[in-house]
Design brief:
Blueprint: E1 18-23, H1 27-34, E2 45-50, H2 60-64, E3 72-74, E4 86-88, E5 94-100, E6 103-109, H3 121-132, E7 136-140, H4 149-157, E8 161-165, H5 174-182, E9 187-189, H6 194-203
Parallel strand pairs: 1-2, 1-7, 2-4, 3-4, 7-8, 8-9
Antiparallel strand pairs: 5-6
Helix pairs in contact: 3-4, 4-5
């Protein structure tokens, strides 16, 4: 029997191996409230796309490392994905998930922008859904365009678990609202309620 997909009736918790997160305008502030809540023994990898203007260096690793118990890195091409590690997409590269003989890896691409963005959230979510299937959590936060809506549905179709920031709590509601319009999601929550879901995904316990 398939699990319920309506936000008012969230599914049982499930352990995931990775969580993909996407955000645009207001995303740094949102992640500053989420990532520091994760404990050192948190097991899923976290793969993150924040829209950054092309041609500008990313300071995300420097911003988040002092405040996170988990190691924080800028993603590298063909880099193995380690549990309990945060990876940020570098500027002007799409971040994808691939697989080699040893397991999931990161891949970088300079293919054309998607939704005027490179990195694009859809690209990460769709490639991660292909590799992780039902062992993936997808999270879409504040933002000013529709990037991520189709990618979140790819996570849904692959059997993964999906979470969207409640639009009226987002700094910019366009992105989460577009995700809700695109199809069903498992959770629609304000930021302060998300850490409990993340921890449940990490240990497979009740939410």
């Amino acid at each position: 029997m398939s699990r319920p997909r309506h936000p008012s009736a969230p599914p049982p918790a499930t352990r995931v191996d990775a969580i993909v997160l996407g955000a645009s305008a207001g995303g740094v502030e949102a992640l500053s409230r989420l990532l520091p809540t994760l404990p050192r023994d948190f097991r899923p990898a976290l793969l993150i796309v924040i829209h950054i203007p092309r041609g500008h260096p990313s300071l995300l690793v420097n911003v988040f490392t002092p405040h996170c118990a988990l190691p924080v890195h800028e993603a590298g091409d063909k880099q193995p994905i380690e549990p309990g590690t945060v990876y940020f997409a570098p500027p002007d590269y799409h971040l994808l998930v691939d697989r080699d003989a040893h397991g999931p890896t990161l891949a970088l691409s300079q293919d054309a922008p998607v939704h005027f963005s490179r990195p694009a959230i859809d690209v990460l979510f769709e490639s991660a859904a292909d590799v992780y299937g039902a062992r993936l959590g997808g999270v879409l936060l504040t933002g000013a365009n529709t990037d991520g809506a189709l990618g979140l549905q790819a996570v849904h179709r692959a059997g993964g678990v999906t979470l969207v920031q409640k639009p009226d709590t987002a700094r910019v509601a366009t992105m989460p609202a577009a995700a809700l319009a695109a199809g069903p999601v498992d959770f629609v929550l304000p930021l302060e309620q998300m850490p409990a879901v993340f921890r449940a995904w990490g240990d497979g316990g009740a939410i």
